[in-house]
Amino acid sequence: MVLNTSKGIVLVDAAWDDILAKQLLDMIKKEFKKPVKWAIITHHKYDRIGGIQALLDQN
User: Fold this and answer.
1) Strand pairing partners for 8?
2) Which neighbouring-strand residues pair with 3?
3) Residue pair 37/2 in contact by the 8 Å Cβ criterion
4) Which pTM was predicted?
5) CA–CA separation, 23 vs 58, rounded Å?
6) Do residues 11 and 2 make contact, with C-beta atoms less than 8 angstroms apart?
7) Distance between CA atoms of 14 and 21, rounded to whole angstroms?
8) For residue 37, how many C-alpha atoms fall within 13 Å in the half-sphere facing its CB?
9) Residue partners of 27: CB distance under 8 A and separation at least 6
10) Rounded to whole angstroms, how far apart are CA atoms 28 and 25?
C-alpha cells in the first residue's frame, strides 16, 4: 500500500524481494514525485520484509 500524504509517501510493507521493492520505489518516485518518508512493516513474514534492503539502500 502506498499512502500519499502532504509530508511525503508512506509505504506499507516492503514487497517480496529487493528487485520488486526497487521497482516499486522507482514507480512511486515517477508517479508521485515525492520521496518515501516512512515505511511501515506490518509483520515479519517474507512477503512483507523481502524488500527491506532496497528501502535501506534508498535511506
Assistant:
1) 5
2) 10
3) no
4) 0.84
5) 12
6) yes
7) 6
8) 11
9) none
10) 5
